[in-house]
Structures are given as structure tokens and as C-alpha cells.
Design brief:
This is Transcriptional repressor NrdR. It comes from Aristaeella hokkaidonensis. By secondary structure, the chain is of the alpha+beta class. The chain is about 45% helix and about 20% strand. The protein is built from five helices and six strands; from the N terminus they run E-E-E-E-E-H-H-E-H-H-H. The strands form two sheets. It has a three-stranded antiparallel sheet, with no helix packed on it. Helix 1 packs across helix 2.
């Protein structure tokens, strides 16, 4: 593993342990050249998953896009980065669990909305407004009414 400080290609593993979510291994390394320590993560390489967009295009699955959408929906709300990362991980796991090699973008959006509904109502409505392309106040109010009815 290349040292981030001196670019030496030789390092030794000092400590190795699974991450809290169990999806990767955290390794503490020490450079044999400069002696500085750094952390690396080892993760299983997943088989490729493609997202089928509404217009029929296909693109590689990218969990960073999901995270960006959730971050936008949760802006200035009491939602921690850990909660956001947990949602992204759950959605990613569900997407790969389909084992079809591809998944519709609508299905991913529904998964995110389901997670946000359980996390924060405002984040849910913000995400729904973009995802469902609310075009008028009536559509927006219908979604709010459904949310209120479910909470009662």
C-alpha cells in the first residue's frame, strides 16, 4: 500500500479489525520508509450494478449520488452524518440484493423515501418534492396529507 506521506510502496499492517457495520476491514499501517502511520479500508468488490434511468439509459450504480440527494434533503435538519451513511449503506445493500445486475432508478428512489420517512418528515418531503417532481401546490399538499394521515 502506497504511503500517503512519502509515496513509498512498502508498509506493514499494525492493526486490523472489522468496521462497525461489518462491511469492510480497517487496517492501521506503518510506512517502512518514513515511519508514519495511516489507515486503509478493505472492502469486498461488488459485481457491477447498473441503474436504469426513467428515459431508459443505463449507468453504473453510484452510492455517492444517493448520499448527495439525502444530504440535500437533510440540509439544516437534526440528522447526523452517521444516520445518513447508515441509510446509504442499507439502500446500497438492498440494491445489490436484487441480484439482477440492474435496478430501476424509481426503485432506488422508493427505498430512499422509505428510509427518510422513518428518519425525518421534513427530509422525506424535501426528497419527495424532487424525486416525484411536484409541479404544483396541490400535489405537494396531497403528499403532506398522506404523511400526516400515516402518522396519526
Amino acid at each position: 500500500m502506497k504511503c500517503q506521506y512519502c509515496s513509498c510502496l512498502d508498509s506493514k499492517v499494525i492493526d486490523s479489525r472489522p468496521t462497525d457495520d461489518g462491511n469492510s476491514i480497517r487496517r492501521r499501517r506503518e510506512c517502512t520508509n518514513c515511519g508514519r502511520r495511516f489507515t486503509t479500508y478493505e472492502k469486498v468488490e461488488l459485481s457491477p450494478l447498473f441503474v436504469v434511468k426513467r428515459d431508459g439509459r443505463r449507468e453504473s450504480f453510484d452510492s455517492r449520488k444517493i448520499k448527495a440527494g439525502i444530504l440535500h434533503a437533510c440540509d439544516k435538519l437534526p440528522v447526523s452524518m452517521q444516520q445518513i451513511d447508515e441509510i446509504v449503506t442499507r439502500v446500497e445493500q438492498k440494491a445489490y440484493a436484487t441480484m439482477d445486475g440492474e435496478i430501476a432508478s424509481e426503485k432506488i428512489g422508493d427505498m430512499v423515501m422509505s428510509e427518510l420517512k422513518n428518519l425525518n418528515d421534513v427530509a422525506y418531503v424535501r426528497f419527495a418534492a424532487v424525486y416525484r417532481k411536484f409541479t404544483d401546490v396541490g400535489t405537494f399538499m396531497n403528499e403532506l396529507k398522506k404523511l400526516v394521515d400515516e402518522k396519526m
